[in-house]
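Continued from yesterday's entry.
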Amino acid sequence: MEQYPENYTKQLQRLLALVSDSKKHYQHAAENLKSSEFKDLLKQYVVERENIIVELKEKIASMGGDPDEDEHGFLSILHRGWLEMKAKAAGKGDQELLEACRNTDQALLDGYDDVLQGTLLEHSDLKTFVSGQRLAVNESFSELDRHYFNLFNTNNSL
């Protein structure tokens, strides 16, 4: 079995925490949107995030790490708290729910970028694995972003 630096598993655990946050925001939004227009799309994103979570857990375990270790880190906890406070203060309208999903995924993309800028680049298999996940997240983020701004531009009451 190939040896991996402990730092690699910690980086993947951080991504796991961010992906879990993203999934939770999509679930919450899908359950609470007033408009049915986006519910199916958000449910699709929940399934995508669930698949990424499974992949990350399998990769962490294959590297000798504990995928269930609570290695969220201070920044992830701080970010989650900020998003929760913002969502409560915003009144949870459709715009705010979609915006919270966008913000969470932007933080997730930033997390992937941080990992990809580190020493993980020295390991081509891990780089390919993480880059593939980042690409999937970016595609759904871009799609949601388009829908969000189309909704914002066509609905002056938002």
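--- second protein ---
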Amino acid sequence: MTEKIKNIKNSKSVKKANGLMAEFKKFITRGNVLDLSVGVIMGSAFGAIVTAFTNILLSLATWGVPGGLNGLVTVLPALNSSQISPLGKEYQIITTQQFVSGIKIGDVTYNQSALSTLYNSIGGRYYYKGLAIINWGSIINAVISFIIIALVLFIILKVYTSLRNLREKRAKAKLEAYYQAHPEERPKPEVKGPTEIDLLTSINESLKILAEKEAPKKE
């Protein structure tokens, strides 16, 4: 029985599985993976804060626009019958009151449930789904949102960089004051030796000089 267990443990499939488990364990415990996980979680939380702040600023930026930016749309004229509402051309665009109370045409009444399958709500009005509509309000909102988010991120990064530079400056000043009080502990400047390129260049020049000296002897 013990021999069988040893054979199973030493089999290629078990060794391969153990190797994969070891690689997976090494992968999930790498510092880069953990740092990336923390960054993603923090980024998601930070994104919610920026979005909420952006919505507040966007509301303030569009406060003076009557009806809000969502109502700024351009309706292109219908070019075929599929772009005309089944209720008729006069019902291409309906108001909220018409949508809620319903529309009666002859003996047929279109209630809110039926109208919801035919119309989309944009800025307090309902447009037939077959219409070609340019929603300028959504474009302006997207541009304003982008500017606000870029400005917020710029300010945050600017403040963070300034605080980091100030902290590094204070740390350097503190370290310099310590070295002035204890000059014997100041590390000596590192003397850099020649690089590989410098050595190869020097060897090449020595070989050229040696070749020039030996050239007359051969003649």
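The beta strands are 73-75, 93-95, 103-105, 108-110, 119-122, 125-128, 133-135. The longest strand covers residues 119-122. Will compare against the first tomorrow.
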